[in-house]
Design a protein that fits this description.
5-stranded parallel beta sheet; 174 residues; 3-stranded antiparallel beta sheet; 4 helices
Length: 174
């Protein structure tokens, strides 16, 4: 897939390099919540921020971004704050821009395991053993979340597959 020109914001700095090889006509602006990841990139090309509290318009022009990726990012935020992230993203996204989202879905094997260990904070929101949190999305929740922030959903799919762990003799839904 090739794009003519524009700006692409990549939340996960690790996505920056593979995409750069395939989409050469885009100006990339990697944004991450983990400043240590920025050491892999030139400081003039990227920045770190808290997309819940920091205004993206302080660093980027309003309505200047074509594509924003949110890869396993929304799930790490308290569900009550997710709309703040989408409002922030909406300000820098062009009117015909797109948000690409990949995240956890309800029914994931990890969610089932967290549920068994009584690690639920609230509905579909859990605390992991390492102290980080994670949320598992339903299509209905995402539709309401993005619709409430003024986005139009173009396409939404849940990808599910079965993974076999032969050494433990278990099949996991992922």
């Amino acid at each position: 897939m090739m794009f003519s020109s524009g700006r692409l914001v990549v939340e996960q700095a690790i996505l920056y390099f593979p995409w750069l090889l395939n989409i050469l006509n885009y100006l990339f602006t990697p944004v991450t919540s983990r400043p240590t990841r920025l050491s892999l990139l030139r400081p003039s090309q990227c920045f770190s921020c808290d997309v819940v509290t920091d205004d993206l318009c302080d660093t980027m022009m309003p309505s200047s971004i074509d594509v924003v990726t949110l890869i396993f990012m929304l799930s790490a935020v308290c569900p009550k704050k997710m709309h703040l992230i989408l409002q922030n993203v909406k300000k820098v996204l062009k009117p015909d821009g797109h948000v690409l989202l990949r995240d956890y879905a309800i029914g994931d094997y990890a969610q089932v395991e967290l549920d068994k260990r009584n690690q639920m904070i609230s509905e579909n929101f859990y605390i992991r053993g390492d102290g980080t949190s994670t949320f598992y999305f339903s299509e209905e929740f995402l539709s309401t979340l993005f619709g409430g922030a003024g986005f139009t959903i173009v396409d939404m799919d849940i990808y599910s597959r079965q993974i076999q762990n032969r050494s433990q003799n278990i099949t996991m839904s992922r």
